[in-house]
Specification:
Its EC number is 2.1.1.33. The chain is α/β, with parallel strands linked by helices. It is built from seven helices and seven strands, in the order H-H-E-H-E-H-E-E-H-E-H-E-H-E. The longest helix is centred in the C-terminal third of the chain and has 14 residues. It is globular, with a radius of gyration of 16 Å.
């Protein structure tokens, strides 16, 4: 899908300083001050237009959520949602996932969500997948011991490669589904892509993986 550039997006987001964090490095180790509570922090890496993270924030008001979206022209849709329907437990960042150590201390993030990440199907691009070992190492450094990744995708090859990389990294799998919507949990929050792919009859793959440390 071609990304439509929105040159006004960054200026608009900066005006919403209670939602958009322009320089998250200033909050490393101090996110509880930003949210004004000690509730656990869950991050979603690759938040798209925010259907999942805003849905989760409504469902779990006692959890703080941080949306991580690389592209400003996409992230602005999340900020617009939160301007129209404010949620005090959501913040938005436009940063690269490889730099997460610069923004969070060890154990400051309680859980990582990866939803419908770019599959990067060519072998030469494997290092770009958000479940590649270098990214797994980054998440491990901001999660507590025995931290978890929750992962959803419609792409079977990405799911299989992620199982292999996580297993090779020493992670264990606590829960798995090869067709999530065949018996969809009541608390499942769908992403925009998830709703679209499910409507086309494509199975949704989901797993919960834990670091064995």
């Amino acid at each position: 899908m071609r990304l439509r550039h929105k040159p006004w997006a960054l200026d608009y987001m900066k005006e919403q300083s209670s939602i958009y964090i322009a320089d998250p490095s200033t909050l490393k180790g101090n996110w509880s001050n930003e949210f004004k509570n000690d509730n656990p922090i869950y991050i979603e890496v690759g938040s798209g237009k925010g259907a999942f993270i805003t849905g989760m924030a409504i469902q779990y008001p006692d959890v703080n959520f941080v949306a991580i979206e690389l592209f400003e022209s996409v992230a602005v849709a999340i900020v617009q949602k939160l301007v129209e329907e404010p949620l005090a437990n959501v913040r938005v960042l436009t940063v690269d996932a490889k730099d997460l150590r610069d923004f969070f201390e060890k154990g400051e993030v309680a859980r990582v969500y990866l939803n419908f990440s770019d599959p990067w199907p060519k072998s030469r691009h494997a290092k770009r997948r958000l479940t590649y070992k270098t990214f797994l190492s980054t998440y491990e450094d901001i999660l507590p011991d025995k931290g978890q990744i929750h992962f959803k995708t419609d792409n079977r090859k990405l799911f299989e490669s992620s199982l292999m990389t996580m297993s090779a990294y020493g992670m264990t799998f606590d829960w798995m589904s090869l067709d999530l919507h065949a018996n969809e949990p009541e608390n499942n929050v769908r992403t925009e892509y998830e709703a679209r792919f499910s409507a086309l009859g494509q199975p949704i793959y989901r797993m919960e993986a834990t670091y064995d440390n």
